[in-house]
Amino acid sequence: MNVHPAAWVVWTLCGGLVALATTNPFYLILVFAAAWVVHAAHRHPGPGIRSFGIFASFGLLTIATRTALVFFGPVSRGSVVAAMLEGARLAVMLVVYGTFNSVSDPWRLLRLAPRRFHEPALASVLALSIAPRMIDAGVRVREAQRLRGIHAGRLRNMPALAVPVLSTGMEEAVTLAESMDARGHGRGRRSRYRSDPWNVPSWLTVVAGTIPLAYVAAMVWTGSPLTMPAYPLGWPEVSLGAVAALIALALPALVPPADPIEPA
Amino acid sequence: MNQALRVSDVTFTYPESETPALKDVSFDLPEGTFALITGATGAGKSTLLRAMNGLVPHFTGGEWSGRVLVQGRDTLEHAPRALADVVAYVPQDPSASFVVDVVEDELAYAMENLGSTQAVMRRRVEETLDLLDVEHLRARSVRSLSGGERQRVAIAAALTAGARVLLLDEPTSQLDPQGAEDVLAALQRLVHDHGLTVMIAEHRLERVAGFVDIALGCVSGRVEVGEVRAILEWTGAGPPVHRLGHTLGWSPLPLTVREARRSAAASGIILDDDDRAAFPRAGEVVLSTTHPLTASYGARVALEGIELDLRAGEIVALMGRNGAGKTTLLRCLCGLHAPDLGEVNAPGGEPEPGANVALCPQMPDNVLFKETVAQEVQVTLDARRIETNGPPRARSRRRAEDVLRELGLLDLAAAHPRDLSAGQRLLVAVAAIAATGAPVLLLDEPTRGLDPESKSRLSAMLRAYVREGRVVVFATHDVELVASLAGRVVMLAGGRVIADGRPEDVIGDSAVFAPQTARVFGPRWLTPERVAEAMSS
Amino acid sequence: MRPSALRFFVLLVANLVGVAAFAWPFLLPAAVGTDTAHGIDAPWIFAGLLLCLGTLLFVELGRGGLGPKTVALLGVLGAAMVALRLPGFVAGFSAMFIVVLVAGNAFGPGFGFVLGAVGTMASGLFVGGLGPWLPFQMVAVGWMGLGAGLLPRSGRSRIPALAAYGFVAGFLFGAVMNLWFWPFAAGSSELGWDPAAGSIDNLWRYVTFYMATSGWWDSARAVGNAVMVVVLGGPLLAALDRASRRMRLHVRPRIIEVGAGRAAAARSSLRVEESPDSTGQDAGEFPRRSDPRTVPQKTNRPASAG
Lengths: 264, 537, 306
Prior knowledge:
The complex is a heterotrimer. Chain A contains 9 helices and no strands. Helices cover about 65% and strands about 0% of the residues of chain A. Chain A is globular, with a radius of gyration of 24 Å. Helix content of chain C is about 60%, strand content about 0%. Chain C has helices at about 5-25, 40-60, 70-85, 95-105, 110-125, 135-150, 160-185, 200-215, 215-245, and one strand at about 255. Mean pLDDT of chain C is about 75; it is low at about 30-40 and about 260-305. At the A-C interface, helix 1, helix 3, helix 4, helix 5 and helix 6 of A face helix 2, helix 3, helix 5, helix 7 and helix 8 of C. Strand 4 of chain B pairs parallel with strand 1 of chain C, so a sheet runs across the interface.
C-alpha cells in the first residue's frame, strides 16, 4: 500500500509548522518521536536513506549555534534554556523533513507536478537521469586527459576537464531535443502512464498532519500557552489534548510499508 | 500500394551555409519498404532522413523549398510533434535521447505526449516490448543496457506512438557485431511481419546491404533512388564484396558473401590458397610482459596468463568478443590498471600513461577541448614538454603543424574540433594522443561510427606512426580494417590469448571473424585489393 | 499570448513579492506580537513566506511553452549542477554555481532563473536533501542566474564583470539565505529580530548575526566563484555560445514556394525487389548516372552532421 507522495508533503508541512509553533520541550519530544517512528516504519532505499540522520545532525548544529548566540547578551539560566529550546524547535522541524526525505522517492515526487509545471518538472527528471552519466563522463575525461599528459585535477587545467564534459553534454542536448520533438513534446494535453492512487493510507497520513496543526492553531486562537516560561524559569504547562493531537502525527507508522517490489 | 513517403523537389540549405544540403530531391517510397540511405559523410544522409519527419526544417531552420508527404501529411503544415503518431525517429546516439531512467516509462513517454488513455498506453507498451523483443528489460535502468539493447529500446520508445514509418540514423555503427545483428533482425521483422516502412542511414554497408530493398544514394546533396547494387556503384561505396566484384568485373555486382561465391563459381576464378609463409618477427622488442599477466576487477578475473611482446614497427589488432578482456589488457599495458600478477616492461621501465605508452580512449570527444585542431596537438606537446623539461613553448605551434603533416591531417589544422564529423574527431583525438610521441600507441575501439574515408585516413596515420620503430595496438571488432591494416592479430577469449599470429592465420578461416573476401576465396585473400594485385600480375 | 510588456510587469511584481518574502524583517518594524508571542508568530510568518515564494515560483516556472530545446538544455545544465554540488565541498563553496553563472550569462536572465531553480530542486532530490529551505534556495540561486544574464554578454568586460558579480553574489547569496531563518534562529537574543526596533536597528542586528555565523563561510563561496569564472569562464562561455548558435534556439525556417510545373519532371522511378536477397539480374531502369565515379566533395560542412 503506497502512500501518495502528496500526502507525505502535507504531513511534512503540517508537522514542520507544528514543531515551529512551540518551545514546550514535552511537545517537541512528542513531535520528534512521531517523526522517528514514521521514519522507522516507512523509510526505503533511495537517495534519502540517510537523510534522517543527516537532518538530525543539522538539528543539533542549530541548537548549538542558537545557544552560542546567547553569549552576545545578558546570560542567565533562563536565557540559556530559552535559547536551547528555540534551537530545538528548529531542530525538530528539520527532523520532520528528514523523515520526509527518507520515505519519499524523487521520481514519484516529480510525477506530482501539475500540468502547468510539466516542463520544469521534466527538466528536473532529465537532470536526475543525466547526472550520473555526467559524473561518469567527468571521470573518463579526467583519465583520457591524463593519457595525454594533462593532469586535469589541477586548477590551471580545469578547462581540460570542464569543456569536454560540457560540450559533449550540449551536443547530447540537441539529440535529446530532437528525440523529444519527434515524440510529440509540447503537443498538447498530456496524460500519465503511472498514477499514484489516492487510498486510505494516504487519507490517514493527511489526517495525521492536519489534526495536530488544527489543534495548535486552536491553541493559538484561544491563547493557550505553547511556550516554556523562561523568565523566570518554570515548568511548562502540558495539556492532555495537545498530547493526544501530537501523538496523532505518528499515525502513518501504523500503515504497513510499501512492498519493495512494487514499481515506483 | 500506398506511398509511405512522397518527396517532391526538395531543396534545403542550412542557415549558416551557402551550399544546399539537399538539391532537387524527388522520390516516392511505397509502404512496407526497407530503404537504405548511403553516401559519404557530409553528403546529406542525416539531413535527408530528418527531412522525412519535419525536423528539417522546423527544428533546424534554414531555407526550404519543396514538399514532403509522410503517410499523406505535409511536413510543412505539421510540426515534428504533430507527426509523432505517423513517423518515428531514432537518432544516432540513443543513450542521449532517453528521457527517463526506466525502460517501461521511456516507452510510455511518447504516448503521454499524445494524451493517450492509460488503457491504450498499457496495451501499446506490451505490444511494443514484444515487437522489439525487449520484454525482459522492462524494469531495467536504461543505463545498464548493452548497445544493442539500448538501440532496440530507443526504437520501441519511438514506435509506441503508433507510427508506421521508422527513421534511423546509423543504427548499427556504434554496435558490436552481436548487437548489430539483433537490431537488424528486429528491423527485418518490422518490415516483413508487420509491414512497417523503415529507412536507415548507414555507412557500415557490409552488414546491411543484404537486408534492404532499395537504396537512396547521396552525393553532395543530390539524391538518386534505385536498386541497391546500382546506387552503391554510383556513390562509389560498397561492402568489400562489392569492390571485389568491381575488381573482377562481375555483373551483377554481389552484395553479400553468398552472391559473391556464386559469382566466383560462375566466373571460374580460382585463386591459389596455399600459403605457408612463416611469420617473421623482426625488430627489437619494445614492450613485453615479464611473467604471465593476471588482472582482475575485484573478484572477477579479467585476464589470465597473458604473455605478450610487441616489436618495433608492428601494427597489432586485438580482437575478441565483448568482455573478453581487450580493454583490460590495454589498460594494463599503459599502466592504468595494476595487474595482480606479472609486470609490464615498457621502454624506459614502468609503463607511464601518456609518457612511454599512450592510450586513445573509446570516446574521442572526451579529449577535445581547444578551439582548433592545431591547438589540441599543441596542448599535448606543451604538457609533455613540462614533463620532460624540453625546449620552450614558443616553437610548439610549428611543431604541432609538423605532427599534423606527418600524420596527414594538415588540412584540418585550423578547424574547430567540434565542427568536424565523428570520424574526423577521432582522427584529431588520435593525433592529439600520438603527439606524445610514445613508443607504444594503443587505441580502444577506434572504429566506432567511423566512415570509410576517415577509416582510410586512420590507416594512413597509423602506418606513418610506426615508421620510426614505434608500435600500434588497436582493439576492434572491425574485421575489414584488421584485414587491411594489421600485420598481426592477437585474439582474446575469456581473458586468455587463444591466437596470436598473422591475420591470414588467425582470422582468415575463422567462422566468425573472417573478412568477406576471405570467405569467398580463402584465408590468404583478405582484401579485394590483394585479389586485384594478384590478378594484375 | 500576453503582450510582453504585461508579461514583464507580472514577472517584476512576482519578483518584488519574492524580495519581500526574504526582506520582511526589515520591512515590518511594527509590532506583530510581543516578546513572549514570538514563539507563536514564527510558524505563521513562515507559512506566509512560503506562500509568497510559491507565488513567485508559480509565475516564473509555470509559464509553459518551453520547447524541447529549452527543456533539453535545462536538463543537461541542471544535471551539471547536480553533479557539481557535492564534490569540492569547502565551507560555502560549491562548484555548482559556475553553471548558473555562465549559463545565465550565455542564455539570458529568464533562462538563468529557471535553471537556478530547477537545478537546485533537482540536486535536492538527488541527494535526498529537501528541506524547509528549498523554496528559498531555489529563488536565491535563480536570482543569481538572473543577475548573470543582465551582465554584458560580449566584449572585453564580459569575464571581469562576471567574476566580480560571482564574488559579490557569493556573499549576497549567503546573506539572503540566512535572512529567511534569522528571526527564528536568533529568536529573542540580542542579535535577533526585534519587531519593536526600527529597520536600521534590525539591519544592524542582522549584519552582526551574519558576520558571527556565516560571514567566513560565505567568503569561501565568493572567492571560489570569482576564481572559477576567471579560470573556466572563457572556455565555458565559448562552448555555450557555440552550442547556442548550433542549437538555433530561435529558429524560423524560410519556406520558398516553387512553381508546380517542376514537380512532374524527372522523378526517379523505382523498382522494388520483393525479397531482399534476390539474386536477380539488373532488370529495368537504372537511375541517371552522373560522372562514373563522382567523388563526393567535402563541402563547407553545414552545422549538423550530413
